[in-house]
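ok here's the first one, seq then struct tokens
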Amino acid sequence: MSYVVVVVDLVPVEGRREELVDQLRRNSERVLALRVGCRSYFIDDRGPDGPVVVLTKWDSEAALRRHLAGPTAAEVVDSLVGLLATPMVPRIVAARDTPHVPATTPRASRRPRPGASPTGP
């Protein structure tokens, strides 16, 4: 499974938090409707004194890059002009480019084979 998770902390202009959250909701609907590789778009409004956090999950880094190079990303950024007190700085917080392989159980925690000594092979 391949994916990339991006987090953006947004500090709204005083008195414009609700407008920012409403615009982010419209943006999320638009990005998800395009089916450009965005699996999820989560908005966390942390209350009157904290940032509004946006978390997106993408199919791959390539899908994220295609989105960022396209017109929709520029329109999303433009839609937030005047609503942010500080610049928007996206961060990639998780990425997986390889198939998920379950971790093996450490030898010390395995159950001993029937008839084997619990302290050695």
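and now the second one, same deal
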Amino acid sequence: MTDRHGVIAPRAENLTVGVNYVQGWAKARRGAESLAEQLAAFGLGTDFQGLAADVNVWGDGLVRLGAVRPDAALLLARLIEAGTAVQERETRPHLSVRN
């Protein structure tokens, strides 16, 4: 998904013969739909209107979040942080006890 400089490749606007754009886009669509379901479950469904599947010039799927209100971005960050903390406690229970 990155170019040789480690930067996200440009989106595919002019298609190249032999590049499987559909497979990458389909994977991105599944990811975008899954994320949309989770955002809706937390009341953020309407805050990510720009959420969309896309594909880059090499056929790699991309999920675009679009413009988001700062409050929605902060809530999403907190949800990710909380989920990461739960996962950490489950995989490393000896570290979950803090003084």
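notes on #2: The chain has a mean pLDDT of 85. The chain has two helices and two strands.
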